[in-house]
Every structure is written in C-alpha cells, then in structure tokens.
Amino acid sequence: MFEQDTPRHDARHRVVIVGGGVAGLDLAGALARDTGLAVTLIDLATAHVWKPMLHSIAAGTRASAGVEVPYVAQARRHGFTYAAGPALDIDRAARTVHVDRFVLHGRDLLPERRIAYDTLVLAVGSVAAPFGVEGVEAHARHIDTLIEAQNFQADLLPRLVEAAHAGRQLRIAIVGGGATGVQFAAELLQMADIAGGYGLNDSRATLDVTLVDRGPRLLPAFPETVSAAARARLEGLGVHVRTDVKVVAVDEQGLRLDDGAIPADMTVWAAGVQAAPLAKSLTSLTQDQSGRLCIDRHCRSVDDPAIFAIGDCASLTPQGEERPLPPTAQIAYQQAVYLGRHLPAMLAGKEAPPFRHRDFGALVKLGEYDGYADLGKFGISSGVIRGRLARLGHEMLYRRHQMRLHGRAAVLRLWLADRLTSSIRPDDRVAKGD
C-alpha cells in the first residue's frame, strides 16, 4: 500500500520509520505485528537491498534482481504501510515528515505530501565522507545506494570491453581501505575473471585496480594480522595497494595526492562514514562530529522524546566508554531488534531495559578468493578465522537477514535459486588459497 497524506483516521498510535535499510525494514515488520500501532515506512527506493551486498552489485558479480526485496511486498506481508519518496525534512512542532514527490521511470506517481507521526524513528543510514576533498562530488562515484551500485555496474562492463578491444587498461582507483573498499577491490577482480570466461581476452590484465587509504594499514577495525594478510592477498591478486596516502583532489584524470598523482578512468570514493543528508540537516537535534544523531540508552533522541534513531545515523556512547558505537550493520540490527521488542512498552509508559550491544566480531570477504573473521571477542585463541569458513560466515549473516524478512522456508528457496543462477566462479587456480 502507498501512503499519501495522512489525516487522523483512526485512534492507533502512528509510528513513522524513515529509511528501509537493515534496521528500518526489520523494525517496521516487528512493530506492525502490534495491532495498536499504525506503522509507516518511508524510503525513496522501491526495494530494499542488504547494504553489504552493494559492492557485489556494483562490480557485477551478483545481479541486483536476485537480492532486491520490494517494499510493497514486505508491507503487504507484515502489515505496515510503505510511503514512496525521499524524506526532505522533519517538522518537529507539527510532527510531520515532508516527503518529496515520487518519480519512477521519469513519471510523477505521487505528489509531495506530509506524513504525520506520533513517534518517529530515523533509520536513514550513512554515506561515505568526502572530508572536504576537492572534486569528490563531481568526479568520484559512490556506492551507498542501490541506484549508485547499478549505475556503476552499467558503466563498468562497456568500459572494460572498450579498453580490451583498444589494447589499453581500464584504471579504477578506490579511495578508502576499510571493509567496503577492500571487498570492492576483490569483487572487481572476480568480475574480470568471470568476463574472461565469456570470451573477453585478457580481461584480468585489462583491469588495473588501485586501492588507497590515508591510514597506515587496511581494515583498521581488524587486528593487524588481518590487515597484513588482506593486503598481501590483494596484492597477490594484482591490486596496487597504497597506504599513508593523502588525496587532496579528485578530477577527470584521477587522484591528486600531496606528493604526486594516481591516474584513473573511474574513481570510487569509499572513505569515511557520515550520517545521511537528512540526519545531518536536522540541526535542532544534537549531533556528533559526523552528523549522527545523539541518542540515549533507549535509542531516543536526547532532545525530543518523540524521535528515536537507530543504525548508522545514530550516535550512542555506552556508559563508561569514551567513543560511540561504530556504524555497523551488526549494531543497526541489534537496535532494530531492541526497539521491536521494547518500543510498544515504552509508548505505553512502561519501563524498558536500556539497549546493550553485543560484539560478535567482524567479517570481511574478498570475493570468492578469501575471507577473514575476527572472533577474538569470543576468547578464541588465534582470534582470526580465514578462508572458506570465514566466507561462509559472511554468507550466513546474509541468510539470517533474509530469514528475518521472509521466514525459514522462503530462505531455503532463495538459497537454492542463488545456487542455480549464480555466476561462474573464478578459475580454481586463481581462487586457490583457502
């Protein structure tokens, strides 16, 4: 069901959720089971995609059609309302969300409207941070949304084919050595291997990938052993890795550094994390340095009891700690589960326990080539699992997310469909190394 203007037509408490990512969509389904709540989910896209999957879609190693979850279908299945269109701003006094017109394939389907709420939950996520670097917005690509990933993929293969036929390289520079940048570099190489299987000669030699980071090592959230191993694996696959590099500008020729330049035909900016534009625009609410909304131990805004925030756009510093929780899918999921369980009680004036996060470690997957799982928090002696088991762990995270949305039986069908329609894997000699 599509929501337009929302006059007060029943006595149910209106919960409006802005953002249909991991946290927002999960919460909408959980709260809709409470018949005393009228739940509306606002998102500018028509379908949800698990964000860690975007780099695979952008590289072309996974088709977006197989992982998209239409919001309309989820709304019908769980009993909430889907409001299509970008949220522009929040009127806290009137308690309304201003939603822009919804345009699909160049046609206006829904007009601008204001959607009223009694309780608002912001789950708008995060985007890469340009850090004031000149030319990022004009010349660098981002992979923060499904549309951006699809647009990159649509441009990538034609450029690779053209470069191969012209006898030159397609140079891609990735800025940001965190999980997104590292995983995307590996997926690009896997795409080149797959393209070679379809008759594109020397596709791996045609693709030239450079990964740069300002810090001293890749994957700073992981142990140094993982950083070193991931760098060695990427370099062994042919990626040029440069750390301790300061990018001062991005232009049509590539990256300008403080001590030189890196030529690139395509530049991807995957550095840093900042709150999505809507959250940053809410200057009347307390924010941290990256524009994330400051919340209390119940995920409620420290300024407005009618507003909650979860996921990457929320900043929560646990009691006794100095730094806020990191903007990860793991934290977003846990906060969605917490509000799904306790928000109805809070709205009824009952006491609820504070949110407590659990650190289940971290996973990073280098395409089908390698993977690393940091499980030191569980007291495992080595702390790190590498190879096939780590890649399986990454896959299981995605299947758990699917199970929350579709149920166990549907996930089995989806898994079988993925096996039947998956792309050809890289040559075993290339993927060897488990």
TrEMBL record:
Annotated coiled-coil segments of the chain: none
Pfam families per UniProt: Pyr_redox_2 (PF07992)
Residue ranges annotated for the FAD/NAD(P)-binding domain, each copy included: 14-336
Enzyme Commission no: 1.6.99.3
Any one Gene Ontology molecular-function term assigned to this protein's record: NADH dehydrogenase (ubiquinone) activity
KW Oxidoreductase (keyword) present: yes
PANTHER family for the chain: NADH DEHYDROGENASE, TYPE II NADH:QUINONE OXIDOREDUCTASE
Family: Belongs to the NADH dehydrogenase family.
Protein name: NADH dehydrogenase
Native source organism of the sequence: Sphingomonas pseudosanguinis
